[in-house]
Design brief:
Blueprint: H1 2-16, H2 19-31, H3 33-40, H4 45-48, H5 64-69, H6 72-77, H7 125-141, E1 199-207, H8 216-229, E2 234-237, E3 252-260, H9 262-275, E4 285-286, E5 295-300, H10 302-305, H11 309-312, E6 326-332, H12 337-347, E7 351-352
Parallel strand pairs: 4-7
Antiparallel strand pairs: 1-3, 1-6, 2-3, 5-6
């Protein structure tokens, strides 16, 4: 209705002849168009009564005297107390005090978090291949279709129950499994888009026998492990004395380096494409390796350790008889050795022999 009345309003304004009056009236017309519509049509009063007469985007007229009289410095000096810092910035709590505490730290992906790490800005070559090719292929190859309405067969309890032959059996937790160790193995879960197996971390460990007689063997092994992995190794000391091997208590005898993230993928990529092809008469990784929880191990002897590019380029720096071999354990998020071998085979690790699930 307001748009229909605009021509008649402007015609009345032009008859009066004053340009300033015309502009002022036009402003009033635009500002109070909704009120004029409600006055001419009482039926729309209920529909337009919630509308504001002025837009929030238009600047409100403020007296010029108040603008000139405003002094922020004088206002700050007249304040009797300082404003709390939380009014301007937010810092998460320093310590995590449980899920029920009213102050919860933000997630690590939030830039305001204390543990926020920007990135990743780029992926390594092997990880990029995993993200673009291997992960979709694994999910496609291991897909198990279950039609709607399929009834899952109930499985027996993994823990044994008590026979209630004694009154003390009541309320007790279930008994452990039969067999040595009495340790429950991880149940293999079907692969879906949420739990596609991937490399979690890589552990490089070496046991240096010569360190019991000469500590120089330990120094050479530590330099080599740090050069190969890029991580400073941790020194482990003997907890007990073993007379048969000449090991005394608290003697440093082994080194361990743990790689995570991009470093883990780079190390596996280096083993697959640079070291494995150079090993002579090497069949591959044994198919029976694995701990039943998705972790695969393989090793390099002294001849295999010197094939790494970091050692090969500075081979004269290492005494040949002091270069140790080392074990590599690739820890994955898989729930079985079968899924872990499937992942490493897709990455390029060769397996031989009988494959044990």
């Amino acid at each position: 209705m307001a748009l229909r009345e605009l021509p008649s309003v402007f015609s009345r304004l032009t008859v009066r002849g004053s340009r300033s009056t015309t502009v002022a009236a036009a402003r009033n017309c635009r500002r109070y168009a909704s009120s004029q519509a409600t006055s001419t049509t009482p039926d729309l009063a209920a529909d337009l009564q919630d509308l504001e007469s002025q837009s929030s985007f238009t600047a409100s007229e403020y007296p010029e005297e108040k603008i000139k009289a405003y002094d922020p410095v004088k206002r700050a000096q007249g304040r009797k107390r300082q404003l709390p810092p939380s009014r301007f910035q937010y810092r998460p709590p320093r310590y995590y005090r449980g899920p029920l505490h009213p102050h919860q730290p933000p997630p690590a992906s939030d830039p305001s978090s204390r543990v926020f790490v920007p990135g990743p800005f780029s992926h390594t070559r092997l990880e990029q291949t995993y993200q673009s090719t291997i992960a979709p292929d694994l999910m496609t190859l291991t897909y198990v279709h279950k039609p709607p309405g399929t009834e899952t067969t109930p499985k027996a309890d993994r823990l044994r129950t008590w026979d209630d032959s004694s009154p003390y059996h009541k309320g007790r937790p279930k008994r452990g499994p039969r067999g040595p160790g009495e340790v429950l193995r991880i149940v293999e879960k079907d692969i879906n888009w949420r739990n596609i197996p991937k490399i979690k971390e890589v552990t490089v460990h070496t046991m240096i026998k010569g360190a019991t007689e000469d500590s120089a063997h330990l120094h050479v092994g530590g330099i080599m492990i740090q050069a190969v992995t890029g991580v400073r190794p941790t020194v482990h000391r003997a907890k007990h004395s073993v007379a048969q091997f000449g090991i005394r208590k608290n003697t440093p005898i082994s080194l361990t380096s743990t790689l995570r993230g991009d470093q883990a993928y780079e190390f596996v990529d280096k083993c697959i494409n640079l070291v494995f092809p150079k090993i002579k008469d090497w069949s591959g990784v044994k198919g029976t390796t694995g701990d039943g929880a998705g972790n695969i191990s393989f090793g390099f002897d002294r001849e295999g350790a010197i094939l790494f590019p970091e050692v090969e380029v500075n081979y004269d720096m290492y005494p040949p008889k002091m270069i140790p071999g080392f074990h590599v354990t690739v820890k994955t998020t898989a729930t079985s050795d079968r899924q872990a071998r499937l992942l490493l085979t897709a990455l390029g690790v060769p397996f031989y022999g009988k494959l044990v699930d």
